[in-house]
Write a structure and sequence with these properties.
Elements (H helix, E strand, L loop, with lengths): L14 H12 L5
Keywords: Flavoprotein, Oxidoreductase
Pfam family, one: FAD_binding_2
Protein name: FAD-dependent oxidoreductase 2 FAD-binding domain-containing protein
Length: about 30
């Protein structure tokens, strides 16, 4: 099993966390 790699980690699943994940993803980051 290979380790998972992310560019950005979101802590929290509320509206702000979801907005951060969407924005980061739109900018090409692996969330």
């Amino acid at each position: 099993m290979s380790p998972l790699e992310y560019d950005y980690t979101i802590i929290g699943a509320g509206p702000a966390g979801m907005a951060a994940a969407i924005t980061a993803s739109e900018h090409g980051l692996r969330v």
